[in-house]
Design the sequence.
């Protein structure tokens, strides 16, 4: 399969505020190479096979102001190496907000989390499918307790989709919106962001957001039309202060700015666009701007 050749813009659309991309992946080169092989076999062809320094300058040179950088460990004893990689990156590049990771269930998971803030990392990314855990499992609860204690927000891929025979688990039996609500009930101070609108359970997640002030969603990939569904319409009906824009760059089959252009062409008000493309992420990750 070939990546899509849809046209790409040279800059972010002219919004009234700078764009924060709350969902960008960075990995050491060999991990990226393995990930792209996986995507090629089981996901989609990756159009931008850019390594970390190039992918960041790609986005910054096109007008993205800040990126939230994510990674995840799929094997035990991998998280420390990835977190050190991220710590070095954020020390060099203040426009990157780096998150750490841990494999739920690995013996030193709480210690790893307790050290993240000292390394300059601002949250934790977890992926239920890749890391084979249920959101309400004991292993996950141990991690959430450490995150709550360290006041680190968590980005948790907890939507059921995509289902893949390449995962060690069945994501449809592992993940459910009810399980995520159990997490919110068990950890009354934990801030949680579920990417991709919670994917095929988007409607249920948008209802859950009404009930829980610490639950956020990101719109990553869902505004592109690539998976079908009218997520722009869904966004218009959703709680405006709880959904943040993210791209999933560089692991995309289509143009880097496809979703930004969809937002620019939509009926969303300037105020909604500001929330989506900057303010909600700023609130969730507690970001400050040095000037204004
Ligand atoms: Zn992602």
Sequence:
């Amino acid at each position: 399969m070939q990546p899509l050749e849809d046209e790409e813009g040279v800059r972010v659309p002219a919004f009234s505020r700078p764009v924060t991309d709350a969902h960008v992946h960075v990995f050491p080169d060999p991990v990226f190479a393995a990930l792209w092989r996986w995507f090629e076999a089981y996901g989609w062809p990756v159009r931008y096979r850019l390594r970390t320094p190039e992918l960041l300058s790609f986005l910054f040179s096109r007008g993205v102001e800040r990126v939230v950088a994510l990674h995840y460990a799929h094997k035990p004893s991998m998280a420390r190496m990835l977190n050190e990689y991220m710590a070095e990156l954020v020390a060099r590049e203040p426009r990157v907000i780096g998150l750490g990771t841990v494999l739920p269930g690995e013996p030193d998971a709480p210690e790893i989390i307790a050290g993240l803030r000292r390394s300059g990392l601002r949250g934790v990314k977890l992926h239920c499918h890749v890391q084979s855990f249920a959101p309400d499992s004991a292993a996950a609860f141990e991690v959430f307790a450490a995150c709550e204690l360290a006041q680190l927000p968590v980005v948790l891929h907890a939507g059921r989709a995509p289902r893949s025979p390449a995962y060690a688990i069945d994501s449809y039996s592992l993940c459910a919106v009810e399980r995520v609500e159990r997490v919110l009930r068990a950890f009354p101070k934990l801030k949680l962001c579920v990417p991709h609108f919670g994917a095929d359970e988007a409607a249920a997640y948008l209802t859950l957001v009404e009930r829980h002030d610490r639950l956020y969603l990101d719109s990553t990939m869902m505004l592109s039309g690539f998976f079908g569904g009218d997520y722009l319409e869904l966004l218009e009906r959703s709680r405006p202060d709880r959904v943040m824009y993210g791209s999933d760059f560089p692991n995309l089959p289509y143009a880097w700015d496809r979703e930004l252009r969809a937002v620019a062409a939509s009926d969303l008000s300037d105020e909604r666009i500001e929330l989506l493309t900057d303010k909600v992420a700023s609130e969730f990750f507690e970001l400050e701007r040095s000037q204004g």
